[in-house]
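Whiteboard transcription, Tuesday session. T.W. wrote the structure tokens on the left side:
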């Protein structure tokens, strides 16, 4: 800000005084003839001039001080105005940056940086509008990682998050810039393929992505193998709006999972009915425990001579709406949805209570087997659960046998530790479906198990398939060398029984000796077989 020059009072006064003194001297000289008086008047005028000069100089100094102060105040004001202007500019920039960050967070996944559900739906709506105007095709690919939750449960969420980021980079690196890749949440991704030629092109892209994800990931010193199931929905054949396309692609994805995972599947109208039925079945199954629709049935196990030796506990469901529901229909659904965890706990406690009740009634069933699911072992402290069930009912641990499939043991990272802790409780441990997995002998001999259970897939081949018989013989030899007992399941004929007796199988289980029965009917069968002939 500019300042006005200070008024020079001293210069102005000096000029006027000089003129005044000159005039006064002339007048004094003309008026006073006496030299002495004239000189005295001049001296007085001179003194008056000097006095006024001092006063003016003082006034000039005050004016200069005020002027300097005013200039300083102006400079300070200019400085403050400049500082505030810069602050306001910075605030405007920060506000704009904050708004941009909030907008990005509102429309992007914070972990992967991909568009989130909100932005994806907006983009898909825009893509549909473009396709409709140009009479072009587009495809929606619903991508779900198979068994991703197992990574989180076994290795932790830090590894799971890094895996999601790596999956994002791998997918994004092999899609066109015109394609939209988004993360809807969890392990679900979705991709919009714009301007495709036909359905086969969408299928080829889906297969390429499945192949990419099947390759190993190196995450935080872990080598991880995952697969993906992809559902494919086409515009406008399978839907012409956002909700319909996404819903149908999701339905097709579940069909891909039902077909064995690690594959892609195109949507068809029949799937909608299947998905609705599946959702209905899941809802009914979740309520089955509360509505008392579940029951534990027991299938007899016998020695080769026919003496009863124990039983296997099997879950049965009689729905008020659906009637009797086959295990093959609801057990896989329970495994997939995680309902198997509360179901498994319910079965375990029911069996322990039933065993104690039988003992109180004078019936001593030496041992009852209960199946453990992979989900139970991964998601809960199974050792604490078994210990709690035994303590709650007072059942001796040796009366309880836990069956774990061979594949589950091989796929659970700390399976050996879990089995050792269960073994310390005193319960018996059996490897179910033995021979169908890929366990090594060196690993098998470390496991604290008591029994190998021969899968019925081999038993049905007795008498007709020499390969199945050779496998059974090998399992028997292996069990003997490790000091383990054997149980053959799925025995349905006398021929199968004779063969197993001949090779020394310890226990037999199958429809040949009876179907799974409710507790009271099983009790009668047990008593009839246990009674001396």
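and on the right, the sequence the group agreed on:
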């Amino acid at each position: 800000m500019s300042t006005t020059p200070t008024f020079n009072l001293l210069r102005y006064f000096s000029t006027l005084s000089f003129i005044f003194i000159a005039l006064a001297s002339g007048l004094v000289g003309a008026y006073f003839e006496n030299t002495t008086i004239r000189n005295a008047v001049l001296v007085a005028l001179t003194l008056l001039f000097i006095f006024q000069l001092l006063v003016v100089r003082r006034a000039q100094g005050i004016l200069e001080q005020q002027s300097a102060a005013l200039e300083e105040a102006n400079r300070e004001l200019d400085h403050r105005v400049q500082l505030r202007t810069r602050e306001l500019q910075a605030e405007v920039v920060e506000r704009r940056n904050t708004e941009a960050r909030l907008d990005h967070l509102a429309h992007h996944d914070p972990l992967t940086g991909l568009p989130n559900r909100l932005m994806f739906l907006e983009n898909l709506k825009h893509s549909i509008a473009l396709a409709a105007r140009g009479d072009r095709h587009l495809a929606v690919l619903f991508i779900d990682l198979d068994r991703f939750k197992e990574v989180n449960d076994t290795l932790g969420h830090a590894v799971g998050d890094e895996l999601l980021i790596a999956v994002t980079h791998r997918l994004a690196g092999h899609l066109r810039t015109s394609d939209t890749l988004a993360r809807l949440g969890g392990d679900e991704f979705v991709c919009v393929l714009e301007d495709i030629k036909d359905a086969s092109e969408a299928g080829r892209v889906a297969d390429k992505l499945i192949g990419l994800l099947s390759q190993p990931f190196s995450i935080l010193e872990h080598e991880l193998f995952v697969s993906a199931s992809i559902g494919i929905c086409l515009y406008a054949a399978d839907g012409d709006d956002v909700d319909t396309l996404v819903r149908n692609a999701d339905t097709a994805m579940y069909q891909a999972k039902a077909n064995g995972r690690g594959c892609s599947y195109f949507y068809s109208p029949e799937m909608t009915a299947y998905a609705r039925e599946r959702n209905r079945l899941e809802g009914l199954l979740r309520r089955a425990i509360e509505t008392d629709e579940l029951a534990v049935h027991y299938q007899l196990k016998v020695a080769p001579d026919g003496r009863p030796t124990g039983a296997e506990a099997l879950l049965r469901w009689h729905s008020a709406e659906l009637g009797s529901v086959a295990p093959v229909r609801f057990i896989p659904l329970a495994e997939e949805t995680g309902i198997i965890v509360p179901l498994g706990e319910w079965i375990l406690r029911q069996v322990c209570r039933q065993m104690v009740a039988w003992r109180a009634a004078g019936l001593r069933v030496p041992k009852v087997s209960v199946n453990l699911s992979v989900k139970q072992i991964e998601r809960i402290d199974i050792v604490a659960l078994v210990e709690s069930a035994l303590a709650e009912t007072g059942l001796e641990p040796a009366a309880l046998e836990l069956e774990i499939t061979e594949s589950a043991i091989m796929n659970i990272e700390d399976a050996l530790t879990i089995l050792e802790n269960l073994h310390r409780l005193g319960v018996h441990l059996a490897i179910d479906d033995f021979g169908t997995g890929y366990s090594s002998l060196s690993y098998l001999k470390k496991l604290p198990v008591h029994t190998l259970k021969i899968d019925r897939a081999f038993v049905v081949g007795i008498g007709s398939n020499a390969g199945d018989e050779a496998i059974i013989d090998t399992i028997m030899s292996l069990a003997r060398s490790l000091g383990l007992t054997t149980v053959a399941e799925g025995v349905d004929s006398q021929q199968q029984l004779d063969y197993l007796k001949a090779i020394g199988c310890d226990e037999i289980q199958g429809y040949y000796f009876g179907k799974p029965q409710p507790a009271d009917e099983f009790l009668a069968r047990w008593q009839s077989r246990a009674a001396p002939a």
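Someone added at the bottom: The longest helix spans residues 35-107.
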